[in-house]
Amino acid sequence: MSLRSxxxxxxxxxxxxxxxxxxxxxxxxxxxxxxxxGQKVEQTLEQLRRATxxxxxxxxxxxxxxxxxxxxxxxxxxxxxxxDPIRHYGIPRAVLVRLGAA
Length: 102
Prior knowledge:
Elements: H1 7-10, H2 21-50, H3 56-76, H4 83-89, H5 93-99
């Protein structure tokens, strides 16, 4: 599978020359932000799994917000299909429904 950067990011890169230090820094920060968003998804989903009935609604809201932020970060990286992370993280249908995705 080939991936392409969003135009806003890829337009600044010249494919015929090596990336500049700032280009590498931008790519590194983009990847790090995606990693942090993924960790947040893992944390909130774990809290949701352990939640009591009283805590469930607030944990569900937090998980939906984390997943939404993660999906946005993935799209900024040029990753448009979210099927793999939904399976990887085991994102429950209740979270996806809150996002309007299910």
